[in-house]
Specification:
Length: 229
């Protein structure tokens, strides 16, 4: 039941206006859906080549940025970042509290930042999740497996290692997620690095696989430019 609630909530997050940032913002422009890439179609996850990354439009993670995190990375042009206030999950009625819980927590991770693609013409988000301190660098893949498992109905997960241009390393996964509520299977990706302040997961979903593929250059940009704060 909780998996279905979570799937429906993520697909219709606008009902929680103010819970996750920018969810009710309309896309800018004339409704056309340009590619997020500055050079063409996205390459495969885990390539590490950076051949098809988006143009940078800013960054998150550092002190004073929209989201202060244990790591920093560049965000694609026109994508809008905003910190997630987990305090909004407290109080309210039981249904709202359950919905908030489903949105704000995934396994041992808590939602910390949401970067909205709608202003750039796509439907989806890069979301950043953080965990508690104490993990070691060698725990990265095991922690990422916990994150994927907690999402619910996932399959065909392919794990690999990555290293950013700034020599930040960790684990990455490409997998399929099936929503019981929407009766749809789509591609998703995530990478995880362990910091002194705890593990950090950067996740790319999307309305469907088509949107996911269109947004891959922004995800590649985040992974390539990942750095310590």
């Amino acid at each position: 039941m909780r998996r279905a609630v979570r799937g429906a909530a993520l697909a219709q997050v606008a009902v929680l206006a103010g819970l996750l940032a920018g969810c009710s913002q309309p896309a800018e422009g004339d409704g056309a859906k340009p590619s997020a890439s500055a050079t063409g179609a996205a390459g495969s996850a885990g390539s590490g080549k950076g051949d098809d990354v988006a143009a940078s439009g800013g960054s998150v993670g550092a002190t004073g940025s929209a989201c202060e995190l244990p790591v920093a990375f560049d965000t694609a042009k026109n994508w809008k970042a905003q910190a997630i206030d987990t305090g909004t999950a407290e109080g309210g009625d039981e249904v709202a509290a359950e919905l908030a819980e489903a949105l704000l927590h995934q396994g041992p991770f808590t939602a910390a930042c949401e970067i909205d693609a709608k202003p750039a013409g796509n439907i989806g988000f890069i979301r950043v999740w953080t965990g508690e301190a104490g993990a070691e660098a060698g725990d990265a893949r095991a922690l990422l497996k916990e994150f994927v498992k907690a999402e619910g109905d996932t399959s065909k997960a392919k794990y690999s290692d990555f290293t950013s241009d700034s020599e930040v390393s960790g684990a990455e996964v490409e997998y399929l997620y099936t929503s019981e509520a929407l009766e749809e299977t789509k591609k998703e990706r995530a990478f995880l690095t362990v910091t002194a302040d705890g593990p950090v997961v950067v996740h790319l979903g999307g309305l469907d696989t088509g949107e996911h593929e269109d947004m891959l250059p922004a995800y590649e940009l985040a992974r390539r430019t990942l750095r310590a704060t």
